[in-house]
Amino acid sequence: MSGSRVALVTGGAGGLGSAIARTLASAGRRVVVADLERAAAERVAAEISGLAVALDVTRPESVSEAVARARDALGPIEICVNCAGWDEFRPFLETDDALTAKLIEINLVGPIRVSRAVLGDMSERRFGRIVNIASDAGRVGSSLEAVYSGAKGGLIAFTKTIAREFARFAITANAVCPGPADTPLLAGMIEKSDAGRRVIDAVERSTPLRRLGRPEDVAPAVAFLASEEAGFITGQTLSVSGGLTMA
Ligand SMILES: NC(=O)c1ccc[n+]([C@@H]2O[C@H](COP(=O)([O-])OP(=O)(O)OC[C@H]3O[C@@H](n4cnc5c(N)ncnc54)[C@H](O)[C@@H]3O)[C@@H](O)[C@H]2O)c1
Which of 70, 104, 154, 242 meets the CB 3.0–4.6 Å disulfide criterion with 209? Predict the structure, then answer.
């Protein structure tokens, strides 16, 4: 049954990820909530009768174990939403090698690793949906987020190449780009940075729809791109950001 397809959501315990997990579950998907925060993943999974798995996208063995656990419990993953991500506001010249590596590992290498772990099964089954949560920062840049923006821009380019390479297996790959959205990640970033509040207030003022995003703004876009009906849409970059970027 197409409605009951197995969907993996990385970062599924987070602000956007948990909304995506709930929306996919209400569309009948069997959802794997995969997150670094196991207890939080279990809470979300319990709510939606899903499966919680511990996952650290920065560790190759954790990725293969999580995908194997999901596969054993529910079958091959047919929908993969790469939503795990992390950032911190930091002037570029204060972004040292350790922080640079962390940002790239979580936001770019992680989704690449998870995609590699699920695309074999998808290819064999001649069906797959990859939805990568990038960011408007990856399309147009964002103050105090130089390396994060680079990683998300890389994720968008990666998504397009996967879309090309796997189209022959009827697999689609698309990127969803939120603008600043009201989640624990953004709240933490603002709290830790002197300039963060000013930057976000300025972004909110220049957003045509005049507010920050909410998880429930982003989740339906992801669910649509993950649907059967979106099978002829691939390699696209969809901003869900109140008109902040219109390119
Ligand atoms: N909130 C925003 O303003 C915003 C804007 C644009 C893009 N995004 C992107 O949306 C996605 C979700 O962000 P959010 O705002 O919901 O943040 P969040 O912190 O609420 O959720 C992120 C989740 O990812 C998990 N995670 C972090 N590192 C991980 C790792 N190594 N392995 C597995 N899981 C890990 C966290 O535990 C958390 O549950 C991220 O990719 C983020 O970059 C967010």
Answer: 242
Within a domain: 188: no
Q: Which residue, chain included where needed, has tokens 């099978």?
A: 231
> Per-residue pLDDT tens for 37-94?
999 999 999 999 999 999 999 999 999 999 999 999 999 999 999 999 999 999 999 9
Q: What CATH number does residue 43 fall under? A: 3.40.50.720
Find out whether the beta carbon of 199 lies less than 6 Å from any atom of ligand 1: no
Asked if residue 14 has its Cβ within 6 Å of ligand 1, the reply is yes
Catalytically active residues, by annotation:
148
Domain that holds residue 87: 2-179+215-236
Handedness of CA 41, 111, 19, 197 (dihedral sign): positive
Domain count, the chain: 1
Whether the model clears a pTM of 0.85, i.e. scores above it, the answer is: yes
